[in-house]
Amino acid sequence: MIAAGADLKIYVATRPIDFRCGHDGLAAKVQEMLRLDPFSGAAFVFRSKRAHYVS
Q: CB within 10 Å: which end of the chain, N or C, has fewer?
């Protein structure tokens, strides 16, 4: 569970992501596309192409 605090930053991807890449692939996408540290404590929200999965 993520406790929302005043310092929590949440980033929401606007384009759908292929979840077959796994957690490591999603972390790589955060580094490459957003130029952010995926382990910074921020929350990154991704959606599937059909928008029926959110991670």
A: N
Q: Whole-angstrom Cα distance, residue 51 to residue 8?
A: 24
What are the helix (H) ranges across 1-55?
22-29
Q: What is the pTM of this model?
A: 0.71
- Cβ atoms within 10 Å, residue 52: 7
Q: Say how far apart CA 22 and CA 26 lie, in whole Å.
A: 6
Per-residue buried b or exposed e for 4-14, using 16+ beta carbons within 10 Å of the residue's own CB: eeeeeeeeebe
Write down the residue that tokens 């292929």 correspond to: 18
8 A C-beta contact, residue 12 and residue 42: no
In the block, tokens 């077959």 appear at 20
